[in-house]
Inverse folding.
């Protein structure tokens, strides 16, 4: 990404343990027995059907995360898109507890989706800190817009890489 002749490389990684928070499962406080344990293992339990959609949907708090779950299926498409990237300044959001370095704003099905990225100091890579569709507040208001210069996608399982965007060669 670039802005005013300054470039920032941004390498984003997805770990199975991050799914728990991205899906909003931490809000299902009446399902703590079901959702207890290692978060990467919970991800596998959801994938293999040990934890079912019905079990999650039966939570009285599920309506709070229903939209988040629905739009989470678009996360790869959001990451592959070349829409707006902002350097996120949490101080501009007085009532938000989200601590992130970057904000992606994408439109899916006529609705804005916000994806917040934070730096993992240990690896130097970024991860999705939070993810949700816009309800009222536009978190991009007043944030500094950066220009996407180059984007490459690498599938962790296969190592296959593909260039999705290259403004540097244009």
């Amino acid at each position: 990404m670039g802005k005013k002749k300054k470039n920032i490389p941004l390498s984003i990684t997805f770990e199975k343990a991050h799914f728990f928070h991205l899906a909003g499962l931490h809000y299902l406080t009446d399902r703590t027995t079901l959702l207890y344990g290692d978060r990467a293992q919970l991800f596998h339990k959801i994938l293999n059907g040990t934890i079912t959609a019905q079990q999650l949907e039966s939570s009285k708090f599920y309506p709070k995360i229903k939209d988040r779950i629905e739009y989470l299926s678009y996360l790869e498409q959001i990451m592959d898109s070349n829409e707006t990237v902002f350097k996120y300044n949490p101080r501009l959001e007085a009532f938000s507890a989200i601590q992130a370095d970057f904000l992606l704003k994408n439109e899916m099905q006529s609705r804005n989706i916000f994806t917040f990225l934070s730096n993992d100091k240990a690896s130097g890579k970024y991860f999705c800190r939070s993810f949700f569709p816009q309800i009222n507040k536009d978190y991009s208001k007043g944030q500094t817009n950066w220009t996407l210069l180059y984007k490459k996608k690498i599938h962790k399982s296969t190592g296959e890489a593909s260039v999705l965007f290259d403004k540097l060669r244009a």
